[in-house]
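User: Can you recover a sequence for this backbone? Please restate the input before giving your answer.

Assistant: Of course. Working from this structure:
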């Protein structure tokens, strides 16, 4: 059995090999440096503790409570979850703040025991509301509270519910009282489109208005000892008109609506502009509703059902009072930087 060659018998590398080796080393170092630059591909990120943040261009939220275990793995517009014997958990990706933008998705559920949901899920403040548009589920979705009737949207029929939660965790603390607005698809689907403005309007028609939008995610939720996994991809979104924090944008300018106070024949909307300091916001009313008055902004009225606004004393925030004249559907808004 021959051993390794003796040192004296080994050939020294030639000069060309030394040069090529140095070049290869430099190229590998450059590739490693490029891999650390923003915008290049990164490995998926797994999160198994309660946290929120941004990853791959999306806002994410991961929360669990009670027994069992749960993790979410983030990979750009896709996420997967795995959970076992979970008491309750919610995790997903989306935006902060949310809006009335239309959301498309594709997501599968492989689960047993308890209940697992796939929903467009979010929160608003003033009033504090937790809302769900439940698209897919295994088990029995929560239908407690007040049944409000049905609506149709995006090829499906949805049952609407309103439910009050008392002394429960929320985005502002651990012991909160708040309302839940629910829309539950009667025929679960693993892919589709959610036109959020339709649901905002449906809830509002029952006196259930959203306030200032907080985060909104395409979420997996599981409870009741459920075990399983989900694989979810968030598709493109398209901006819509106003309603519960909804807005429209042009360039880097976005206008978002949120609910103010309301009377028997009027209501207020708060308008928040982001992405520009000089802008024009256009508001198109749903006839026969009209703009009655404004505060903190300069306003012009090209027509009875259209108003244009430019910055006034309120800067990027102003208020509009609407006379609905029997139509309580919120107006649409768009913003263009000047």
């Amino acid at each position: 059995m021959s051993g390794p060659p003796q040192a004296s018998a080994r050939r020294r590398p030639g000069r060309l090999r030394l040069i090529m080796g140095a070049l290869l080393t430099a190229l590998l170092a450059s590739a490693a440096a490029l891999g650390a630059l923003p915008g290049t591909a990164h490995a998926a990120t797994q999160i198994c503790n309660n946290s929120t943040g941004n990853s791959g261009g999306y806002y994410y939220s991961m929360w669990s409570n009670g027994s069992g275990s749960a993790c979410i793995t983030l990979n750009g517009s896709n996420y997967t979850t795995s959970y076992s014997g979970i008491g309750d958990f919610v995790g997903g990706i989306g935006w902060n703040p949310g809006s009335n933008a239309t959301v498309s998705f594709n997501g599968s559920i492989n689960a047993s025991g308890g209940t697992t949901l796939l929903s467009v899920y979010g929160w608003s403040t003033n009033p504090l509301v937790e809302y769900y548009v439940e698209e897919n589920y295994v088990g029995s979705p929560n239908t407690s509270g007040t049944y409000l009737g049905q609506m149709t949207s995006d090829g499906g029929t949805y049952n609407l519910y309103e439910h009050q939660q008392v002394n429960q965790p929320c985005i502002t603390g651990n012991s909160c009282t708040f309302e839940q607005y629910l829309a539950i698809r009667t025929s679960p689907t693993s892919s589709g489109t959610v036109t959020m403005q339709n649901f905002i309007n449906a809830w509002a028609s029952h006196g259930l208005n959203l306030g200032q939008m907080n985060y909104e995610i395409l979420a997996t939720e599981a409870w009741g000892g459920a075990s399983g996994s989900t694989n979810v991809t968030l598709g493109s979104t398209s901006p819509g008109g106003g309603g519960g924090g909804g807005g429209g944008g042009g360039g880097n300018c976005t206008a978002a609506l949120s609910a103010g106070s309301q009377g028997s024949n009027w209501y207020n909307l708060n308008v928040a502009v982001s992405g520009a300091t000089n802008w024009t916001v256009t508001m198109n009313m749903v006839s026969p509703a009209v703009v009655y008055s404004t505060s903190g902004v300069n306003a012009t009225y090209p027509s009875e059902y259209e108003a244009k606004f430019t910055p006034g004393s309120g800067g990027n925030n102003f208020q509009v009072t609407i006379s609905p004249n029997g139509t309580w559907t919120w107006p649409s808004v768009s913003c263009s930087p000047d």
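That completes the design. The chain has a mean pLDDT of 83.
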